[in-house]
Amino acid sequence: MKIKILIPVYNDWQSVTKLISEIDDLAKNINHEISIIVVNDASTHDRDTNNNELNNLNSVKILNMKTNQGHARCIATGLKYILEKDEFDYVIPMDGDGEDRPEEINDFLNKIERNDFIPIIGERIKRSESLLFKTCYQIHKLITLVFTGQSIKFGNFTCLPKATVDKMVNEKATWNSFSGSLRKLEKELISIPSIRGTRYFGPSKMNFSSLVKHSLSIISVFRKAVLIRSALFIIIYILLIKSHASIITLIPFLFLLYLIYSVSNLALRENIDEYKTSLSNIESISKIK
To answer: How many structural domains are present in the chain?
Structure first.
């Protein structure tokens, strides 16, 4: 089978170079054709061109973007490029900083040999961040479940068959949220346990603000469910507190207003016309191997 590994990067070339080298080492024991496509999100740091020998990968290409467009849209652009320009059976999107552990690629490949053409997700069972971040992440998952009815315990680290990639490239939500779009499109998902690795170099770029935006982007994919559930909550809440109304009891309403406003605002990012023309943002393609 032909496996494409899709890696977005912004400036973190040291980590990506290390990751590519580790995947190359893994590939010598994999009985499939492994290729890597890196989406360079208009990095401002120069790339190290002195690459180690890559003996086991079929090819390594870098798509150099003209303008910075963010992590989610880099993955979306990469999926579209692979679907339209390459031959493949599966795509594995993953972060380039070491937090998606390359050794788990084998777990995906073992799974697809027993489950043809069903998307596989890396479900986080252990994270490496601080206790505060882990707590915030659990709150994010709970809010997502309560307001959308969807349990989303995965990120970009997945293994997608060609049919799923085709669906995602034709879905406007992919331009806004990868995991939200995948959950919306595919009702049957198989999971592997995935341990969040530690970054190869430097601190994590995911902070509290990034987590909030990530969470709201996922929720915005299911905004109809959010509006319905919010309306039901308001009705029930009014019935419960009508004789005890106060400034304090207004706090949940303010939270809901913020949620609905943010979700509606982020939903505007779902632009299928922009997505259809996203390959025009590729300035050049560098072939490393």
So the answer is: 1
> Is the pTM of the predicted complex or chain greater than 0.85?
yes
* Half-sphere exposure (Cβ direction) of 16: Cα atoms closer than 13 Å: 30
Domain, as residue range, for 192: 2-287
Taking alpha carbons only, the member of 173, 172, 154 closest to residue 221 is 173
pLDDT per position as a tens digit, 33-64: 999 999 999 999 988 755 668 999 999 999 99
How would residue 179 be classed by pLDDT, with cut points 50, 70 and 90? very high
Q: 239: Cβ–Cβ under 8 A, 6 or more apart, which residues?
A: none
Token readout for 158 is 């997945």
C-alpha 155: how far from chain center: 5
Question: What CATH code is carried by the domain that includes residue 133?
Answer: 3.90.550.10
Using DSSP bridges, classify how beta strands 59-65 and 282-287 pair: parallel, antiparallel or unpaired. Answer: antiparallel
